[in-house]
Amino acid sequence: xxxxxxxxxxxxxxxxxxxxxxxxxxxxxxxxxxxxxxxxxxxxxxxxxxxxxxxxxxxxxxxxxxxxxxxxxxxxxxxxxxxxxxxxxxxxxxxxxxxxxxxxxxxxxxxxxxxxxxxxxxxxxxxxxxxxxxxxxxxxxxxxxxxxxxxxxxxxxxxxxxxxxxxxxxxxxxxxxxxxxxxxxxxxxxxxxxxxxxxxxxxxxxxxxxxxxxxxxxxxxxxxxxxxxxxxxxxxxxxxxxxxxxxxxxxxxxxxxxxxxxxxxxxxxxxxxxxxxxxxxxxxxxxxxxxxxxxxxxxxxxxxxxxxxxxxxxxxxxxxxxxxxxxxxxxxxxxxxxxxxxxxxxxxxxxxxxxxxxxxxxxxxxxxxxxxxxxxxxxxxxxxxxxxxxxxxxx
Length: 395
Fold this sequence. Notes:
Strand content: under 5%
Structural class: mainly alpha
Radius of gyration: 22 Å
Number of domains: 2
Mean pLDDT: 88
Oligomer: single chain
Largest sheet: none
């Protein structure tokens, strides 16, 4: 490329960048100011308790929320409402006894109350999405579909609120005990449920269809089923001190990054199920008429797997850095590490075959479902059936 062409290309990029910012509305800039103001308020209130890496995480969170809110308008009220309720909960929660004395905490805002509401909303959304698909045909304006979407937003908000308030509750248990609540299977199943739901909600808006909601919410409901069993059957909801291996700042970034990947893989697999349902249905059947086109579902599978693969790659690198600090080596062929590599290779192969061989359709749908099974074994099966350095996550 000549110097003149390079200059023209750079000018075009600058023009497009400037046009992007000119398209932003006053509300977009108010959103940016609100994010910056919230970040500064958090720093002023809790900065003395933050280590340098927590300050970096706070700054990166604000930097991520601003363009996220610009790009996904529905995320703005969600973030503001959950943030406001979290602040309210913390302000009326001076000690653990307050959870029994305050009506708001006891029935709405304590971590256990919020998480139970999450379960109710997600299970209700699953039923309503399928009812909408069967009775309303997936029409965007159908009442049942709108309620299902609202329930999914409410469940996601309740789950996020529950984890944020649980974070505060860990501090109330005693000096030096506070930790980011992604340390055990109970907490990460909450994280998995609302992360998967939020990823689905984003693509529901992008593809403008609710017909896939019931399929995706099935995997969320499965998470809820495990969570309820773990809560009531194993009494796993109690807050316990962190074991030494988890007392690291790496946990704050490694675990959430992993579960964004798991959520994206879950959405891809359930879209694959919907793809196969349509492929095996008669062309005149309700499933064939009401589900999105094959091209749309294929594209959505690809987008979710690409998103999950990117986050899983980052999580694996972060995990290796954590392992080097905790155990003195980046890789030890621990069962969890080995199966993480298998998951990574599986999705790398999926993407490779799509890009280089042009694979589409039914084989890739089956592969996405198989990928979720492999991922589930990596996430849960290793903890149940195998032992190793990660055995602290067992049932």
